[in-house]
């Protein structure tokens, strides 16, 4: 059974966020989204557009979260928390956020995009050229790096796929080189 078919069965052919029945498709919840059932939801075009484009957000559309925030599906809970957090200045979403509960793992996932932070609090990772890096990006090393404790040198030009960001340090990212997870300074990496 395909992932989309499994999502249709789980959601009874309805958007798992607003309940709409038309223009449904798979939506991978970032940054974990790998297209699997556990990290995806079935969403309508309106929800997907507003999730990906905050400028298009219509607060009244998201009143549906009053129901969907109680879903047993972690990916739905994560998206509900993110949208309620995005809309908290409207007033009513803050009441729903106060009632909502996410376990530690889900809260880490929900906060992974940093959307809940004010612009002054966000840690922004930039590569050697000043390009913003995001979790899951691919980078190329621009300098030979001695990997302490692993006994090898990560050569210039090595591709590091699917990086993760060090949450409290804008100058560090993590990635696998030669099968070993290492910390890389952003000034020695270039987004590819």
Overview of this protein structure:
This protein is of the alpha+beta class and 192 residues long. The protein is 26% helix and 20% strand. It is built from 6 helices and 10 strands, in the order αββαααααββββββββ. It has a 3-stranded antiparallel beta sheet, with no helix packed on it. α4 (74-86) crosses α6 (104-111). The longest helix is centred in the middle third of the chain and has 13 residues, at 74-86. The protein starts with a helix and ends with a strand.
Q: How large is the count of helical segments?
A: 6
Radius of gyration equals 19 Å
Low-confidence stretches: none
The count of β-strands is 10
- β-strand percent reads 15-25%
Q: What gap, in angstroms, lies between the N and C termini? A: 34 Å
Q: Which structural class do you get from the secondary structure elements?
A: alpha+beta
Mean pLDDT: 87
Task: Using the alpha-carbon principal axes, give the shape.
Answer: elongated
Order of strands, widest sheet: 6-3-10
Main beta sheet strand tally, sense and closure: 3 strands, antiparallel
- What percent of residues adopt helix (DSSP H or I)? 25-40%
Order of helices and strands: HEEHHHHHEEEEEEEE
């Amino acid at each position: 059974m395909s992932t989309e078919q499994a999502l249709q069965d789980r959601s009874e052919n309805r958007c798992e966020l607003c309940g709409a029945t038309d223009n449904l498709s798979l939506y991978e919840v970032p940054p974990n989204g790998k297209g699997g059932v556990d990290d995806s939801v079935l969403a309508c075009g309106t929800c997907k557009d507003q999730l990906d484009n905050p400028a298009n957000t219509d607060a009244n559309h998201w009143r549906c979260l009053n129901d969907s925030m109680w879903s047993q599906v972690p990916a739905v809970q994560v998206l509900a928390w993110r949208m309620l957090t995005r809309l908290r200045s409207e007033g009513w979403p803050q009441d729903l956020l106060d009632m909502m509960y996410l376990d530690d793992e889900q809260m880490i996932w929900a906060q992974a995009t940093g959307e809940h932070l004010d612009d002054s609090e966000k840690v922004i990772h930039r590569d050697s050229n000043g390009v913003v890096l995001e979790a899951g990006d691919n980078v190329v090393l621009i300098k030979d790096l001695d990997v302490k404790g692993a006994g090898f040198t990560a050569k210039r030009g090595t591709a590091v796929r699917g990086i993760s960001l060090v949450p409290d340090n804008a100058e560090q990212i993590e990635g696998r080189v030669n099968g070993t997870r290492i910390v890389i300074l952003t000034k020695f990496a270039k987004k590819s």
